[in-house]
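fyi for ur records
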Amino acid sequence: MIGILLIVSLTVFLAFTFASGVDVRLNDPDMAVLRIKDDIIPHRTGLGKSSQIVKLEMLSGKGLHVSDIQISVKIVRNGEVVASEVCSGFPVERFRDARCSGDDIIDKSNLGKRVLGELHVSGDGLLVPGEWIGFRIKSSGIVLEEGDVVVVSILNAESGLPVAEVTRRV
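which gave:
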């Protein structure tokens, strides 16, 4: 008898909840398909700041506001993470203006929109298919070697949930 009363009570409660107009909707997570646009060139003497640049091109997905993302960069050598850094607080003039934690491997100098893409303050702050974001791994942070793997994760800054992840072997 008690079981029947509980089932009836639960049914009435749920019917009232849905009939009262309570919106039970889950937000779709932000998802994007990105690729690392060009080969990552390891640092060599004479290359200066033209080496170790990583540009991520958006291939598909709804637009991402750069103010809503975190960028996680990991360098994997021989199967082990040897350096990593996470940054947020975009758009920026230079990465020095972003909030970063971890190993200091991302170049914080003034590389401009030529390297930062839509992360730069001169962009519209929205990454859409066909556009890109970028950064440079500074050689004083880590010198990439042939065979290293660069893993870049784009995360939702508020929830920490992944939006996209790309890897590229150097």
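Residues 22-28 have pLDDT under 50 and may be disordered. thats all i got for now
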